[in-house]
Amino acid sequence: MNTLYANLIDSHFHLQSLGKKGMDSQVLLKQMSEYHMAGGIDIGVDCDDLGQRSLLVKDFPFIKQSAGIGPWGVDEGKPSIDAQLEILEHQIDTFGACAIGEIGLDNHWKYGTEALQEELFTKQIEMANKKNLPIIIHNRQADLLLGNIIAKTTFAKPGLIHCFQGTLELALLAIEQGFYISFAGPLTFKKNQGMRDILSEIPLDRILLETDSPYLSPEPYRGQINTPLMMSHIYETAASVKAMSVEELATQIQTNFQAFLS
User: Fold this and answer.
1) Is the distance from CB of 155 to CB of 125 less than 8 angstroms?
2) What's the rounded Cα separation, in Å, for the pair 243 and 214?
């Protein structure tokens, strides 16, 4: 592993999924604290997971938690959208959340139908607006529909598009609406110069970074289980693209992260 810089932030990781991969969440969180990571967000994926997840971070106040239902929430056999939203809102009201997410659209796996995905997504945006919370967007091969929704929607708080893999046009549209753009392990992939080119065009005050662990391990750990402790590789690549030091970028990301949560 590369140098473990202090003050790094992982804006998107999944503690429960890491646990399913055999990682001890308490050991991991202690390591993040010992390495002086500045913070991060453990991300929700289902309507009823926040209560269990909140127990994992209760002793680690530098870790925030979001709650949301991804597009897989409309897959075959799932409860109705309204039933899931009722459970989600109760979980947020009971346990608290810093954001609603991850939520969004996925035309790669094609969960349910596009219409159902859009309904679930927009209803959670409405919930976020009602609760004055930002949103964290999952987007996979749905740039056009996502862009249309972002362009016509008013957001109570600036959101972010996580693990950005869309077009520069989508990124700039989102930024116009106050969004942050978060880059993950794919930024480091040798054949992903196009993503690095997009990062070069994103204003510094609109950038966040993440692992999306346990998925999408950065170079040179592709194929292995990803963890927030691999953030250094993503920061190094992003700092190189932006022609600045990792320490300078870390300071800016902390500012951006606090602004996103405020």
Assistant:
1) yes
2) 28
